[in-house]
Q: What sequence folds into this?
């Protein structure tokens, strides 16, 4: 079980690296006027989105295994797991939203400012903080 936990944590950290960095690329794309630079940023964003999607799959699969098979977070007194899973679902939605925003940039139809993307970039930080508190502190 400890090997599974270790790999779960590794893939979650790797997935979050993408969740933190891709919106930063969006900030730059929203400010960029040069076509060549825009194309280079789009290439980076596409590769990063593909890579972080590949990393999210084992992170989620191993987490489900720990919960459903090993039993971590099951039973009474584990309300923290429900809060964590809610955050995980929101993170999956955030990941999907990043893909949708990337498609808008690729089509040249982004309507959002770099300032909006700077705030959008903070969402995974807040969700990660909540998840960490739920997993480590287990407040309920």
A:
């Amino acid at each position: 079980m400890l090997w599974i936990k270790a790999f779960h944590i590794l893939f979650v950290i790797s997935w979050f690296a993408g969740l933190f960095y891709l919106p930063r690329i969006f900030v730059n794309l929203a400010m960029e006027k040069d076509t060549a630079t825009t194309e280079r940023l789009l290439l980076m964003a596409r590769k990063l989105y593909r890579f972080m999607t590949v990393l999210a799959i084992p992170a989620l699969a191993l987490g489900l295994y720990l919960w459903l098979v090993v039993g971590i977070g099951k039973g009474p007194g584990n309300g923290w797991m429900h809060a964590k899973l809610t955050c995980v679902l929101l993170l999956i939605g955030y990941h999907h939203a990043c893909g949708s925003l990337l498609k808008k940039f690729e089509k040249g139809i982004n309507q959002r400012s770099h300032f909006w993307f700077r705030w959008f970039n903070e969402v995974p930080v807040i969700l990660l903080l909540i998840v960490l508190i739920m997993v480590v502190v287990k407040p309920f």
